[in-house]
Amino acid sequence: MMYKSTLSVKKEIALHLLFWVIWVYFTLAVVDANGIHFAEMDLFSSTWCITYVVTFYVNYLFVLPKVFHPFKWIKAIAGLVVIFLFFAALRYFLEQFLTVQLFNVQNYNPGTGILYYIYDNTFYAARPIILSSAFWLIVLLVRLLDYNKYIIEEQKNTEIKFLKAQINPHFVFNTLNNIYSMVHFQSPNALPAIEKLSSIMRFTTYEAPRNFIRLGEELNYIHAYLELEELRHYDKSFVSWETTVQSDNHEIPPYLLSPLVENALKHGSYTAEIPIIIRLSCNDQQLDFEVINRIGNQKKDKLGGIGIDNLKNRLEILYPEKHTLQTTEQEGLFSAHLVIYFQ
């Protein structure tokens, strides 16, 4: 996605017009008993205004971009000297040369020393230089904040895509291992397993790339994954579901719940007598998902691996301070409990 600042050139021009309207009001307008009217402009008031505006934009368009690309103090000092000399030289040209040629008048008396001229113009030059610098820095700050927000968003999207890319092969790898075992032992469940794998691949291809999917789609994916395990173990009763879902149309990121189920299948020990317990409740306020399994005898159950680690990272990105993920071990049982707060 190409970066496009919210502060467009048109908006910047509009800000300049607003600035000059305000400047004219506070500089040239006179408020008295007769209302608001503009002070009469004599010749040297006009030349001063011209010098002011030209200096403002020379500093804004040329000096400041050079000074801050990249910023160095020596460049800042040099830029300040240059723009001041520009102001003094332009004013001298307009008021000590051009007006003499056109109207035979000049602003400063003949014989005015150069040191006094520079000293006197220090005060007059300060206003356009300070105002143009402040205006330019404000515009720069707005654009930097806008760009920083864009970069953070892009980093978030990039990290999420990377995490998804890690998760997808992990699920496929486990599933293919299961099917390989069935084919090797010539199990009649091999073809149904391939059908379930096809369902998983459809999810991976069409649903997983999306940022959010319906809760029902995630649950369908989990069911397909569990059915593959059932086919491999020839056991259809090692999972106990307890669900209270007001609506499965709530939108969640893909692969949000499945890593907890996969963790139980990978590290747990399960039978029909002591099944994996999956509890799910969901309403408008929160989603509550818990997976409980017996800890395997030969492999310690833990909240680890690519899928779970990625889940923790994604939760930090997608639901900062709006989720809890807790794991407990008690009496030989392992529990992973995820709560997401929608409000």
Automatic annotation (TrEMBL):
The keyword Transmembrane helix applies. Keywords: Kinase, Membrane, Transferase, Transmembrane, Transmembrane helix. It holds the Pfam family His_kinase. The chain crosses the membrane at residues 12-31, 43-64, 76-94, 125-145. It comes from Taishania pollutisoli. This is Histidine kinase. The keyword Calcium does not apply. GO terms for molecular function: phosphorelay sensor kinase activity.
